[in-house]
Amino acid sequence: MIRRSLFATGLMATTLLASTACSAQTATGAKPFKETVIADFDSPWAMTVLPDKRMLVTEKKGQMLLVSADGKQRQTVATITVDSAGQGGLMDVVLAPDFAASQRVYFSYSAAGEGGKGVVLARGRLRPNGGGGERLGEIETLFSARPFVEGNGHYSGRIAFSPDGKYLFFTNGERQKFTPAQDPKVTLGKVVRLTIDGKPAPGNPLAAKGFVPEIWSYGHRNLLGIAFDAQGNLWEQEMGPKGGDEVNLIKPGLNYGWPNASNGSNYDGTDIPDHKPGDGYEPPKVFWNPVISPGGLMIYSGAMFPQWKGDAFIGGLSSKSLVRVDLNGTNAAKGDQWDMGARIREVEQGPDGAIWLLEDGGESQGRLIKLTVK
Ligand SMILES: [Ca+2]
Ligand SMILES: [Ca+2]
After folding, report:
1. How far is CA 117 from CA 156, 170, 328, in A?
2. What is the pTM for the complete model shown?
3. What distance in angstroms lies between residue 233's CA and the mean position of ligand 2's atoms?
4. I need a surface site. Which of 4, 98, 328, 352 has the fewest CB within 10 A?
5. CA 243 / ligand 2 centre spacing (Å)
6. What pLDDT, on the 0 to 100 scale, is given for residue 362?
7. Whose CA is closest to 165, among 256, 95, 254?
């Protein structure tokens, strides 16, 4: 049995494509959008759109690129020293809520350090470089998952700001070690809530119960998407084990069950008890079996596709798909799953309401694709 967690690296992707045909999913319905290839990158991981419609794109090996809106021009604004083995690399990139005033850009990456490796949160300021371009300067590290441990997987590293702009939510994966997700003394397998300066946010729900003060929710596995909807609900998606990918509604202080409860099973075939009422674990709002391998999450608020306003879009890695989840208040249900023919790492909304996708491919095989109305 091939462990799907290995697939989450762009490098592995190209060599394993031929052997993953078994995980191809059936698409539901014709694609109601037009696909336009805008640019290509080397193992892109995340992107975000600036107010002037240019884009910041991260590449796994540590490059942060500033790309023109038409995709034709690019410059490297930062080269971050990362540990890019396995699933590691330069990861998420998100603008500060006050970016127009502060020029601050938040990002995450995996690093090697004492004890092994871990995911790190940092920020810098995107400013003119004096030569007609820009550079990301004043880079400072804000927070590191702890402890650092051996291994190259399940870093997570997704970032979301609270709607009021005062706090930041950061996902810390369980590093393929299972039990840290239930350990109150470590940040692995957790959603943490921080101040915008990277300190434990005041009022975090578990601090008085002996948990480390950053923790907001726990019992998570590999959290590759987190986003607020327009009503202020916090949604998260994570890669589960075999047959257990999840979309969760994140509430403060709750335990989401990993590795004690999952609607999937271990890769070695052993069962994990399914979520059930009264077990003390918060069940997913949606789960997938067979899996989709969720790589990125965006909640749509645009006007181009009014029928999807308020819905969640997920990039599927092993499923090579774009997945839509119907969000209605605090309820969620499966929507569409469109076959994209490539592993999708990131989903983003453009300034005109177009949907942007980044493929998970190395050596210029990671295309940036714009989806617009037909
Ligand atoms: Ca993004
Ligand atoms: Ca199970």
Report:
1. 13, 17, 39
2. 0.92
3. 27
4. 328
5. 8
6. 84
7. 95
Closest by alpha carbon to 127, among 113, 137, 141, 142?
A: 137
Looking at residue 15, its pLDDT comes to 36
Q: Which among 255, 178, 124, 176 has a CA at the least distance from the CA of 5?
A: 176
Tell me, what's the pLDDT at 21?
Answer: 36
The token pair at 21 is 């045909």
Contacting residues for 278 by C-beta, under 8 A, at least 6 apart: none
In the chain, the amino acid numbered 123 is R
* Main-chain dihedrals φ then ψ at residue 193, nearest 5 degrees: -115, 125
pLDDT given at position 108: 99
Q: What is the C-alpha separation between 56 and 82, in angstroms, rounded?
A: 18
Mean pLDDT, 10 residues at a time, over the chain (374 residues)?
40 37 49 96 98 98 98 98 98 98 98 98 97 96 98 98 98 98 98 98 97 98 98 98 97 98 94 96 97 97 98 98 98 97 97 96 92 96
Specify whether the CB–CB gap between 80 and 93 falls below 8 A. Answer: no
Q: Report d(CA 10, CA 345) in Å as an integer.
A: 9
State the ligand closest to the CA atom of 276: 2
Ligand nearest to the CA of 270: 2
Q: Residue 28 has what pLDDT?
A: 56
Task: Give every CB contact of residue 118 below 8 A, 6+ residues apart in sequence.
Answer: 110, 111, 144, 145, 146, 147, 148, 149, 155, 175
Q: Which residues contact 130 (CB under 8 A, 6 or more apart)?
A: none
Span from the CA of 338 to the centroid of ligand 1 (angstroms):
20
Distance (Å, rounded) from C-alpha 13 to C-alpha 86? 11
Active-site residues, by number, are: 154
Ligand located closest to 159 CA: 1
Kindly give the distance from the C-alpha atom of residue 357 to the centroid of ligand 1, in angstroms, as a whole number.
Answer: 10
